[in-house]
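G., the chain you wanted modeled:
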Amino acid sequence: MTLHSKQHSATITNGRNRAGARAMLKGIGFTDDELARPIIGVANTWTETMPCNYHLRHLAAKVK
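Predicted structure as tokens:
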């Protein structure tokens, strides 16, 4: 992993002023090893009320 690959995640995980963010992430189960890697979020527009987006819930689960 290069320094660049962690650059964006570092803004929420590195430094003394981000201790609160690290504590919250550790509170939901992140380990030190996971915090050292880039954090990638998966967002989708799934909703029960729109048939055209209904499949996105299952697709996002497979991506995660």
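Residues 19-27 form the longest helix (9 residues).

Shout if anything looks off.
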